[in-house]
Amino acid sequence: MLLRMSGISKTFPGVRALDQVNFAVGEAEIHAFLGENGAGKSTLLKILSGAQAPNAGTIELAGQSVSFSSPQVAQQAGIATIYQEFTLAPDMTVAENVFIGREPGSRLFVNYRKLEEQTRALCARVGLDRSPRAMVRDLSVAEQQMVEIARALSMKSRLIIMDEPTSALSRAEVEKLFSIIRGLKREGVSVIFVTHRLEEVFELCDSYTVLRDGRNAGHGKVAETSVEAIIRLMVGRDVGLLQQRAQSFSTPEVAMEVKGLSRRRKSTDASAIELHDISFRLHKGEILGIAGLVGAGRTEMARAVFGADAFDKGQLIVDGKPVAITSPRDAIAEGIGLVPEDRKQQALFLSLAIRTNMSIASLDQISSAAGFLSSAKESALVEEYRGLLNIRMASGDQLVGNLSGGNQQKVVLARWLALRPRVLIVDEPTRGIDVGAKVEVHNLLIEMAKTGIAIIVISSELPEVLSLADRILTMREGHVTGEVTRAEASPEKLMTLMTIGSQRAA
User: Fold this and answer.
1) Alpha-carbon span 397 to 355, nearest angstrom
2) How does pLDDT run across 211-220, given as a tens digit for each residue?
3) Distance (Å, whole) CA 52 – CA 411
4) 445 and 302 together in one domain
5) Beta strands in 13-92 (DSSP E)
6) Exposed (0-12), middle (13-18) or buried (19+): which is 18, by Cβ within 10 Å?
7) Single residue among 202, 235, 268 that ends a domain in this structure
8) CB distance 412 to 348 below 8 Å
């Protein structure tokens, strides 16, 4: 056994994060580490990586008792962590990032020839076809991830922890990553693979461990279990998997119409995705799915409709009236809300309280005529949506950054529910949240549609689009390539529309 953690406990003020947890990883093994948001996974991995110290328990590495006082000590022992949010320096080269703080050469001078030779060899091992002199800021997300893996290999790591490594990758990039991980296994490296995408566990992993509420819930060989069994271990109950809903609440009344929305690429932003003559109607009570591969222009379309990005041509019609939306403030005034793809960077104020994050779009409703905020109304709003959405929190004064990913997403949804929007655009509604919270978010979106809210759901997961949407638009390279009803939709048909276009999808 390469790694054995026994009886690990960790307590924070008022919270017992881990309670006598046991965790083991074999030699040359790909081990899935699973659990709902808030189950204790991050805390255990921080202890393993040297970022936190346990209150109790022991760690053995290759049969030797060890303790890690810092991440540097863990790295020296052969344990490397690749976080979901990369730790690369964008204004440094690939080579400088791979060997940062460990550059070959004398104490005073770096041997750049040796630095680039060693980096080139490591890049070849992970399949990164980039010059060691390339700037990291010019690399794609998948390429930056390869740099992180190359850095881990440069440390002669025996165990690599990968936290949600596929969350921002296309399917082709995921397959390449899996090939790299399998190659690491053949070289004798073990991998702890943290993911909420259970299909990836069965495609890649040898064994699994599940935590629930800071305790062991189960472990075993992946080949000897099922998706349903792992979900029961994670949430302690049976959860309905993503199935196509039986009832539609769409009405003939049009909530919003988009006509000829177009945007040209600017010379100042050569990487921006162009939009070409995008037109569609969205009905009250309808859930409209938007499907497309990375770079299709789905998020760019949503941001243009919401006024976050300018567009060159096109018209927006809300409740039958043409509207001019040049900023998010205009969109909010017209009853349009946006839950963005990156909730931490674009939606939440992580260092502020839940109450502030939840009420910030509804200040007019909870303020007096003189413009003063009513604390009583704000508290009532927080309690209303805390109960309605089953948000797990200590109080409205708790920092939103301390919530799990699923509960953070519910806070963002509560913000727009409180505004009572006509139209709600939700970009990647369940990215980075566990299966139990995913089902809760799906049910919430369906209940919102039932009240007459028109919803646009943008998702990279075809099962999610197929389970939620009444109608699905597909996009490719800034164009709408097709429209299918729920009855007509299938993964094969959508993928054809997303990759080739309408000519081949009939």
Assistant:
1) 6
2) 988 999 999 9
3) 28
4) yes
5) 15-25, 30-34, 56-61, 64-66, 79-82
6) buried
7) 235
8) yes
- How many structural domains are present in the chain? 2
Same domain as 324, residue 270 = yes
3-state secondary structure of 54: coil
Q: What is the CA 426 to chain-centroid distance, rounded?
A: 13
The Cα–Cα gap between 59 and 64 comes to 8
Distance separating alpha carbons of residues 497 and 505, to the nearest angstrom? 6
Number of H helices and number of E strands within the chain? 17, 20
| Nearest by Cα to 55 from 8, 112, 109 | 8
CATH of the domain at 192: 3.40.50.300
What is the distance of C-alpha 158 from the center of its chain? 27
How far are the Cα atoms of 122, 140, 457 from residue 130, in angstroms, in the given order? 11, 11, 36
Query: How long is the chain?
Result: 506
Determine the average pLDDT of the residues in 154-174.
84
In DSSP terms, 282 is beta-bridged to: 256
DSSP label at residue 1? -
CA distances, 316 to each of 190, 275, 313, 325, 422 (Å):
53, 15, 10, 8, 14
Q: Is residue 431 part of a domain?
A: yes
The residues pairing with 321 across neighbouring beta strands, listed in sequence order, are 318
273: helix, strand or coil: coil
Q: Looking up tokens 């205009």, which residue turns up?
A: 330
423-427/454-458 β-pairing = parallel
For tokens 């299938």, what's the residue?
A: 490
Q: What is the pLDDT of residue 244?
A: 57
Residue 197, in any domain of the structure: yes
Chain segment 370-422, per-residue pLDDT in tens: 778 888 889 999 998 888 878 888 888 999 988 877 788 889 888 888 888 99
Tokens of 387: 């109960």
Is pTM beyond 0.85? Reply is no
Handedness of CA 61, 64, 69, 75 (dihedral sign): negative
Longest CA–CA span in the chain (Å) reads 74
**Sign of the torsion formed by the C-alpha atoms of 413, 419, 423 and 427:** negative
- Give residue 307's domain range: 254-348+403-504
Query: Of 103, 102, 126, 128, which is closest to residue 113 (Cα–Cα)?
Result: 103
Q: What is the dihedral angle through the alpha carbons of 62, 97, 132, 267, rounded to the nearest 10 degrees?
A: 140
Q: Which residue has the tokens 């309690």?
A: 383
Residue pair 458/445 in contact (Cβ under 8 Å)? The answer is: no
